[in-house]
Specification:
Largest sheet: 7 strands, mixed
Helix content: 25-40%
Radius of gyration: 21 Å
Distance between the termini: 37 Å
Low-confidence stretches: none
Strand content: 15-25%
Number of helices: 12
């Protein structure tokens, strides 16, 4: 179906931060499948885990216990705030399930009137009808009938607006610690802490969408760890599978209380193949020193992008981001810079607010960061010349 405006290129194989076409052209991948290929392409630990599991058992469904699923859940609980984990296949499913969990929490607690969720302008939570309504972007909602009710949208970064929006029907606040699709928008200091305090005061749930910002991308396992607060529910996907479809809902014991047998489910979620790869991703990301190295790579990338702003002041208006979730706001259409970068054999990703996302894999080398910045500089020069 014609749902994608695809680049006219086909990749045949990949290794590390590089992709290669069937004719041998090599591209530096600073899109990582939109923050999915956290450990790059064909990472040997992931390949080994997948191959080992593929020879034993692929799928049984959640009608039965799944040993690998239980082990991965235990590791996620040990590494995070969570007490309970539900596995699914994608970020949209994780966010949809988080919405259901938040509403169900109040229902079983005798507060069925609490079902509305406060969300933020510029957010993106997926392409299901509920997650589209949660984001409230008219461009994505157009043509799909009446918007699903239950979401109140407020400006991103505005704690006071959230406080004013909380009412007797409010069940939760849902927010991305860093907005990715919305333009790599980092909230002001104290924003997440303020939301946590408001939720505690109002007796509602604090829900994080860490689909893009999680699994090491900012230099912590999850981005909210930089603030010292914890959520009640968190949606995870993308990097957790390293390229294999895997998502999860993480929750405290209390927040998960409403999800009892029959209230939610997934045919494929957490099957043996997916959880074997997810476990291998955690093996790498949680190794001593790995996340600290990502933090340093993020600083190196930020410095390189800042130099681009100095070298191309007419085009580059702002550098944004945290860790290896970076973006540059340009005085041009993001698609134009994405195309110019492709001509320099560099892959980057567009976003809202005239921002181009720069999302290298977490295993990217210092030399590759320098090379990527240089290719992006050449792309900016190419774009500038095309406009004269």
């Amino acid at each position: 179906m014609g749902t994608y405006a695809r680049q006219n290129i086909v990749f045949a194989k990949g290794e590390g931060a590089w992709l290669e076409t069937a004719t041998g052209e090599r591209y530096l991948d600073f899109g990582s499948g939109i923050a999915v290929n956290a450990l790059g392409h064909a990472h040997p630990r992931l390949v080994a885990a997948l191959n080992a599991q593929a020879g034993k058992l692929w799928h049984t469904s959640n009608l039965y216990r799944v040993a690998g699923q239980e082990k991965l859940a235990e590791r996620l609980v040990a590494a995070t705030f969570a007490d309970k984990v539900f596995f699914c296949n994608s970020g949209a499913e994780a966010c949809e399930g988080a919405i259901k969990a938040a509403r169900r929490y109040h229902y079983v607690a005798g507060r069925p009137e609490r079902w509305r969720i406060i969300t933020f302008e510029g957010s993106f939570h997926g392409r299901t009808l509920a997650t589209l309504a949660a984001a409230g972007n008219p461009k994505y909602l157009e043509g799909f009938g009446p918007e699903m009710p239950g979401f109140d949208h407020v400006p991103f970064g505005d704690v006071e607006a959230v406080g004013a929006a909380i009412g007797p029907e409010t069940a939760a606040v849902l927010v991305e610690p860093v907005q990715g699709e919305g333009g790599v928008r980092v909230p002001p200091a104290g924003f997440l802490e303020g939301l946590r305090a408001l939720c505690d005061e109002a007796g509602i749930l604090f829900v994080l969408d860490e689909v893009q910002s999680g699994v090491g991308r900012t230099g912590k396992l999850f981005a909210h760890e930089w603030t010292g607060i914890t959520p009640d529910i968190m949606a995870v996907a993308k990097g957790i599978g390293g390229g294999f479809p895997l998502g999860a809902i993480l929750a405290t014991e209390a927040a998960a209380a409403g999800l009892v047998p029959g209230t939610h489910g997934s045919t494929f979620g957490g099957n043996p193949l997916a959880t074997a790869v997810g476990a291998a991703v955690l093996d790498v990301v949680l190794e001593p020193g790995f996340l600290a190295a990502v933090e340093q790579k993020g600083l190196r990338l930020a410095q390189g992008l800042a130099r681009l702003k100095d070298r191309h002041p007419a085009l580059v208006k702002e550098v944004r981001g945290q860790g290896l979730l970076a973006g540059i706001r340009i005085d041009a259409t993001p698609a134009d810079l994405v195309a110019a970068a492709l001509a320099e054999r560099l892959l980057v990703v567009g976003a809202s607010e005239n921002v181009v996302r720069v999302l290298p894999p977490l295993i990217v080398g210092d030399d590759e960061i320098s090379e990527g910045v240089e290719r992006l500089s050449r792309a900016l020069t190419r774009l500038a010349q095309s406009k004269t």
